[in-house]
Amino acid sequence: MSFLKRAVLYLTRKKGRTVLLMALLLLMSCFVLLGISFQESAKGQADSLRKSLASGFILKANEENEMYREHFDYEQGGGASVYVGPTVTDEMIGKILSLDGVKDYSVRLSNYANTDLRLKPGAWADAEADDEETIAFAKKVGAGWMTAEELEAFRQNTVLYPCRNGSIHKNFRTGALTITQGRNIEEGDHFKAVISEWLARENGLSVGDTFIVETKEGVFQFSEEPLKTWGEPVELEIVGLFKTNFSQEPSEYTYEDCYADNTIYTDLDTHAILEKNQKNQNDGHAYEWEGYGEVEFFVEDPSEVDAIMQRVRNWEELDLNNIDVVVDSSAYQAAVKPYQRIRILAMALLIVGLLGIGVILYLVLKLWVQGRRREVGVLFSIGIKKGGVFGQMLTECLMVSAMALVLAFVLSGPMLARCAGALERMNAPKAGVEAYEAATGGYVLEITKSSSDEVVLGLDVSMGTALFTALFVCGVSALSVCMSFGGIRRLEPKKMMQWM
Question: Rounded to two decimals, what is the model's pTM?
Answer without folding.
Answer: 0.64
